[in-house]
Amino acid sequence: MKEEKENNKGFIPVHGGYRNLITYQKSEIIYDGTIYFTKRFFQKYDRTIDQMVQAARSGKQNIVEASMASGTSKEMEIKLTNVARASLEELLIDYEDFLRTNKLPKWDKDHKLVARLRELNKIPNANYETFKKAIENESPEICANAMIGLIKVVSYLLSKQIKTLETAFINEGGLKERMTKVRIEQRRKNTN
Q1: 130: phi > 0 → left, psi -120 to 50 → alpha, else beta; which?
Q2: In this model, does residue 179 exceed pLDDT 80?
Q3: How far apart are CA 65 and CA 5, in angstroms?
Q4: Residue pair 164/78 in contact by the 8 Å Cβ criterion
Q5: Among 4, 45, 140, 159, which one is least packed by beta carbons within 10 Å?
Q6: Where do the structural domains in the chain lie, given as residue ranges?
Q7: What is the pLDDT of residues 75-103, one digit of tens each?
Q8: What 8-state DSSP symbol labels residue 73?
């Protein structure tokens, strides 16, 4: 982090810090929950396991990659953040498929346990333990719907994050603009 702050004196802004992003923190819970869920509810060699785990991993890892790329490419940051959102959407469909094929209900926004999930999602620095009773519940309906709820929250937050990145790019520009600005300032200093 100290090195990143020193870089801020040039044209590459401070970047990284993904562990502080709520989207990363919750995507880590989703990844861990998906590992648990697939081991519990699918046969050992079912291809769905790999698909779900890879989608959960991709969601989490693309948040990391976007954060690290942000210093030199706002375009890449936006693209990778959207890839994270798309991967989690794919995972969401897998959980919905699980409910449908097992004839279990998908909760609507007025379900009493959705209100509880909302409460849990408001807890600062939530981790797997925060959601463990829901994710590891004996009822597959509760497990799958809890994961769906988490994914929906992260997807919503990623959408907002993309909008914020878009606005920042419009207002501040990207690396080329920063490089040009620093170079022009340096020329001015050299001519004075």
Answers
A1: alpha
A2: no
A3: 19
A4: no
A5: 45
A6: 2-191
A7: 888 899 999 999 999 999 999 999 999 99
A8: -
